[in-house]
Amino acid sequence: MGKTINLDGTIIGKGHPCYIIAEIGSNHNRNLDKAKELIDVAKEAGCNAVKFQSYTADGIYSIYTPRISEMEGRSKEGETPYELIKRIEMPIEWHPILKAYCDQVGITFCSSAFDEKMVEVLESVDVPFYKVASYEITHYPMLQKIARIGKPAILSTGNSDLDDIERAVNLFEKEGLHDYALLHCVSQYPAKYEDINLKCLLTLETAFNCVVGFSDHTTDCLSSVAAVSMGASIIEKHITLNKKDSGPDHPFSLEPKELKAFVQDVRATELLLGSSVKRVRESEKENHRIGRRSIIAAEDIKAGDVITLEKIVIKRPALGLHPRFIDFVVGKKAGKDIPKDMWITWECLL
Hints:
Number of strands: 12
Helix content: 25-40%
CATH class of the largest domain: Alpha Beta
Number of domains: 2
Order of helices and strands: EEEHEHHHEHEHEHEHHEHEHHEEH
Distance between the termini: 51 Å
CATH architecture of the largest domain: Alpha-Beta Barrel
Number of helices: 13
Strand content: 15-25%
């Protein structure tokens, strides 16, 4: 069945339901009640976990970092990356509050750590696993710290090549961490279809023999549904209460009704995928009997008559002998009268 990992008591991997992470990130807008409401939304929709982002501006950006084009329309005019992160960073004191609320609601709390200090904060609330954001794939001191803790890790691979991923994976393995998953991801917000490259899921699975998933930054559900059909065992999707709220991630996030439909689509896709065993399904059996063909009398056949090819026809239903027995039937004598259009069974033959 392939490799599996255990995330907060749930087995993840091939043959198991997809693990759905609702990415709240910074979409709480530094409002604790809104953060809790988003947790409720994720739970009601049927997600397995909610994910926040644990960072400080000082821990991520130099104050001299220039603006990038994606900030246009999603940040204050002239605001630098440092200033944006400073404005939306999640208070450290929220971590135990949100972890306790998730425990109360019955959904797993997790968060992306962006530096070693935040790993310690998350460990203080006993997160069940660690999530590493795409841009932190080269933050080797933090990766080492996570690996030495020994809990499962999920590593997003946006904006990376195979060398980047291999170095991170080798670091995990060297430190004794073997329970990790890799999420294919495109670090573009929102991501465009032509950049998604879902075939990379197969590349990651083949190259690293691990659980794979998809972190979806598109504006709809299609990419995630397609990813599940290609074997993604984890799906991560941003959520919001309102796409029009102020903040960098709201525009490409799912609102509550969309999230519920998203989870339903993922679960429906799993049902559609079903089993690789090709057989007649229980639901097909009635149609199988009535819609398939069998050997049927083309004319009245009297008991003792030799059955010739002209005396039989292959027609529906499949209540008589299978057509593969036609050569066996031809030349046999009828053991009883067989009226025209009646199917021929073994009991009809001498």
